[in-house]
Amino acid sequence: MRRVVVTGMAGMTSLGDSFAQISPKLNASQTGIRYMPEWEYLVDMSTRLGGPADHFVHEKAYPRQARRSMGRLAVMMVKTGEHALADAGLTDDPVVKSGRMGVAAGSSYGSTPATLDFVEFLEKGKARGLNATSYIRMMSHTAPVNMGVYFGLQGRVYTTSSACTSGAQGIGYAFEAIRSGAQDLMMAGGSDEFCPTMTMVFDRLYATSTRNDDPQHAVRPFDESRDGLVIGEAAGVLILEELEHALARGAKPVAEIVGFSTNCDGQHISQPNRKTQETVMLQAMSQAGMSADDLSFVSGHGTGTATGDVEESHATHAVFGDKVPFHTLKGNFGHTLGACGAIETWLGIEQLKEGLISPIANLSNVDPKCAQLDYVKGETRKVSKNAFSSSNFAFGGINTSLVVANYE
After folding, report:
1. Of 111, 149, 190, 271, which alpha carbon lies 20 to 30 A from 162's?
2. Mean pLDDT across the stretch 122-149?
3. Count of CB atoms situated within 10 Å of the CB of 37
């Protein structure tokens, strides 16, 4: 069976765009959450909290001609992909355009400004905001196809627009494409641009935090005082490559994808199910040929919602027990939706190679309804450098689990 390694990776978050920038903040339990005064006019929304990547000005990332088919989320993915290719030593490498490299990536939705232009057309009959690229910026596969065009990819395009599992499915399906021999290299990941519509989705479900006067402590995964999630903004891209191909060109793998599974609850559109979550984690571990004793830590989904954290904790306990260090990064970034699986894998690999994992931000007292796990709280934990499991779950009952091993 062909082995699949990671040879490049990059990300963009509210706390910075490199591990050197982000790591000290994670270890200090800092968050990228802020009060959103620009939302004061949204009177029917309870929360005023968000985690946008304010530092990134997408209008300045590329010349106007180059980004005319890109909304903000596509620009974020292309820019992050550019950094990941450079990290892999593949910038301007002919293999990128050879047909042996494809892309698997997604987002929850396309860019909202383009959608508003279509709404104006429907409501007023005026098409003044529409042009030849409006749909390209709005469509759900805007991120992977813009990556394909910008980098000249001629391999497979998998669009993984499955909300909170978009990034994890992107990595998983890229892994399967290489493992099967269909491709030698893949760009994989996910993104979502910041928009109040995504926050309103959860606000209507009474699932957003309303600690509007305390943004830094608003997201409290698994804590008994948690009151909901906060939406963040991010992008993450990994370069996956067949091992022998990577070694032949002199690349240095940083990690190996050894297990992936995805399944569906098949019961409820928004209520998580601990049994199918347990199943997806077991399947990924079985494919990896590993047991809980082989893991250095588990990177959880951990949105900070009342029901989600409880269900996930019990599924995690059923698979890994209470001896494997467990943390989540959503207390720091908020829920970055289509990006979360990608940035959590990227930063998980970085922390695995350091042998240090950051504490769960704002976790003080574990909710007694949650299962007993080895929650990492208070301070950074030293761990082994062997492997980790990463879980993500999405509306529609979609579950994913990745197992990533160190490569040295």
Report:
1. 149
2. 96
3. 7
pLDDT at 1 over 90: no
Catalytic annotation, pick one of 58, 141, 317, 335: 335
CA separation for the pair 380, 73 (Å, rounded): 32
Rounded to two decimals, the pTM is 0.97
CA-based torsion, 383, 354, 343, 176: positive or negative: negative
Mean pLDDT computed over every residue of the chain: 97
* String of DSSP letters for 64-91: TTTTTT--HHHHHHHHHHHHHHHHTT-T
CATH of the domain at 198: 3.40.47.10
Average pLDDT over residues 119-128: 96
Model confidence at 351: pLDDT above 90: yes
Give the number of domains in the chain.
1
Residue type, 3: R
- Element containing residue 314 per DSSP (H, E): helix 306-320
CA 172/CA 388 separation, integer angstroms: 15
The single residue of 217, 301, 317, 327 carrying the catalytic annotation is 301
Residue range of the domain that includes 112: 4-406
What does each C-alpha distance from 401 to 65, 257, 273, 344, 353 come to in angstroms? 39, 11, 14, 12, 20
Q: Which residues contact 135 (CB under 8 A, 6 or more apart)?
A: 114
- Whose CA is closest to 22, among 354, 319, 257, 252? 354
Residue whose C-alpha is closest to residue 25's, from 382, 351, 397? 351
Asked about 335 being catalytic, the answer comes back as yes
Q: How far apart are CA 258 and CA 387, in angstroms?
A: 9
- Summarised one tens digit per residue, pLDDT across range 315-332 is 999 999 999 999 999 999
